[in-house]
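Hi Y.,

Following your request, here is the sequence exactly as I used it, all 554 residues.
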Amino acid sequence: KISLYIQKISIIVFSWFCFVTFAFAEVSSFEVTSRQPYAGGLQFGDVGAYEEIRGRIYYEIDPANPLNQVIVDLELAPLNARGMIELSGDIEIITPVNLDNGNNVAIIDIPNRGNRISLRFNKPNANEPIGDGFLMNQGYTLVWVGWEFDIDRGLSIDVPSTIENQAMPIAGLGFAAVRDIGSWIKYSSDTLISADHLISFGLSQSGRYLRNYLYLGFNTDESGRKVYDGMIPHIAGSSKIDLNRRGAEPVSQGQYIETSYPFADEAYTDPVTGLSEGLLENPRASQNQPRIFYTNSAVEYWGGGRVAALVHTSPDGSQDLNLPENVRFYFLAGTQHGPGPFPPVEPGNGQFSNNPLDYWWHMRALLVALTDWVTDDVAPPASAHPKLEDNTLVRPDQVNFPDIPGAHTLANVSARNRADNPLLENQGGAGAALPLLVPQVDQNGNDMSGLLHPELIVPLATYTGWNFNNPGIGDPDQLFPLAGSYIAFAPNREARESTNDPRLSIEERYINKQDFLDKISIATQESIDARYILASDKNDVMERASQHWDFLRD
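Below is the corresponding structure, written out as tokens. Let me know if you'd prefer a different format.
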């Protein structure tokens, strides 16, 4: 593999530009427009140096292949002389210079509105834009490919338009592009890079993309082979994406408009329509399923109609479901869609400060666990999510949230209605009310179940997956999109009693800072033992907890 890689790169040593054509059914050619050392040639542990490659990938899609015919308006696409549909998109790659030093796993990052997202595993910041190089030290090859046509900047794709009906873009070809780039890397000998194992990662919009990708059966390539071995649809809830229809607008935020039946992976009878279908259990998707980690914050339970609970409950929300053997579900308890700033800042768009609880420590451990599962068949950590059977999953009006000063009532929050599914009879019951089930909380107002962060187990604050609008920006009875709340404990009993705060103060909980840190250390080690945090990250988790104490006590 390394010799093939060197042969490809040697083409551009002098010109920094290459165009290579070859005969591989779905990917017809690639064009390299730039190649340079990544991070200035920085050495990443035993893996060594990485390099960054940018270019263009060209596809030919067979309109006669039954696997492609789920794409809306495919029959209206213009064809080339070989009877194929042509499209092209951006591609970017960060890969070890010596592939033999890598881990033989490529992460295909599904860009969110054209933006790279998987580098968040590195925990970058303003001072260290590449973060701690976690992904590189692990030896991953990273690939970004354009799939979305309706963006102004970032990685995009050019899809053909219909030859009639006002020349509308055939947006669903964006699913075929992600399928075919994976198949090209995994099975072709004529590639820029290769890997025996592929993991796909999508976040929010692109997490919803991955759920739709699975549902439509795109994890089987045109030759009938499995494409992705593992997949992490992150913070997508039970929603999909608006991509495979005439006039699609995938760039939309997808609030309250993208959650359609089926919600769960396996087929369960829908009381609204009488149908029985699953995201994975349907004729298109039943073959070549990857191993899947669904990861969701508390926001995906509470807000935006994403109703994360429907991934692990029946369509009417009346009973818990057993997940398929190839699926795990991890609720990142007490977190918001994306961690808020730390130290916490004053309330802005919401009535409380945004929630800063950092779930990326858990995400790093889960990525390693998924990698071990797909490469060495090592069983992953157990799923962790709220359940009806133990009353950790309840209706909003059943949440025992403490009477914190200024906290809004939760009883009236709703998930609104189902979106339409044009593949099913009667649009899959479009317009029917979605059941809303949310995590139950403890006496502090913190989620009781799921994957618990050490600072939820040993808290200094209440962390929620909801935050109502600041009256200055909107209806104060409506949730601000994608935000959670941070509500610190009072420093002492006197301060607590002066505001009638029912939560114990910091001084009533901990003898001193060392007592707090000792408890955090124990909680962190328990998470490490359960494989929900990496041992190598313990010091950083402890340091963040120490900074939090100082922030509240100074």
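The radius of gyration is 24 Å.

Thanks again,
Q.
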